[in-house]
């Protein structure tokens, strides 16, 4: 019986490890245009507010220099800065990285206010349209496409009102046939 209990415990631990790994793969990845803040406990000179990532997804940080944040999650960036400061400049630094402002997504076509808008976690096509003032009188609710920032081919894909919009995406609402 003890063998099966241990086997079950190992199985449960493996499941949680896989869930943890899966969650880190879906964590928001930083890129150009994101605004972050970095707090180093008890080190106000190393705590920076409102750092906007430049066009290469990098920023300048005291002692370290240019830091590449592109493609990293806030947790991964936190670890990177902690590792750079540890030993060389501080003993056991406590670093926190927060996302202050997400980069924009873009909406064009048959909406009342086509423009770029700050991304919000959980943003759907329906909510993106609402941010843009709603659909115009000529809009189609069935002919909508998105070009994903992460898609190297920049191929438009069809979307529905409930599909998610990601940061950097370009959403286009076409005219309906009347």
Automatic annotation (TrEMBL):
Protein name according to UniProt: Uncharacterized protein
Source species: Thiosulfativibrio zosterae
Signal sequence coordinates: 1-22
KW Oxidoreductase (keyword) present: no
Gene3D superfamilies: Outer membrane lipoprotein wza domain like, wza like domain
Domain Polysaccharide export protein N-terminal: 23-99
Domain of life according to the entry: Bacteria
GO molecular function, one term: polysaccharide transmembrane transporter activity
UniProt KW keywords: Signal
A Pfam family reported for this protein in Swiss-Prot or TrEMBL: SLBB
Residue ranges constituting the Soluble ligand binding domain according to the UniProt record: 105-149
């Amino acid at each position: 019986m003890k063998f099966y209990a241990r086997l079950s415990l190992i199985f449960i631990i493996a499941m949680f490890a896989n869930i943890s790994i899966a969650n880190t793969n879906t964590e928001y990845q930083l890129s150009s245009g994101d605004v972050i803040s970095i707090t180093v406990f008890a080190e106000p000179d190393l705590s920076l507010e409102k750092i906007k990532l430049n066009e290469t997804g990098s920023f300048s940080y005291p002692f370290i220099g240019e830091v590449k944040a592109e493609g990293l999650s806030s947790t991964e960036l936190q670890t990177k800065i902690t590792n750079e400061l540890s030993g060389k400049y501080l003993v056991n630094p406590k670093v926190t990285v927060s996302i202050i402002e997400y980069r924009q997504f873009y909406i064009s076509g048959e909406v009342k206010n086509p423009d770029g808008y700050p991304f919000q976690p959980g943003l759907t096509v329906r909510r993106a349209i609402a941010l843009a003032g709603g659909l115009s009188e000529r809009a189609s609710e069935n002919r909508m496409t998105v070009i994903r920032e992460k898609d190297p081919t920049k191929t438009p894909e069809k979307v529905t009102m409930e599909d998610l919009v990601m940061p950097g995406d370009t959403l286009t609402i076409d005219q309906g046939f009347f």
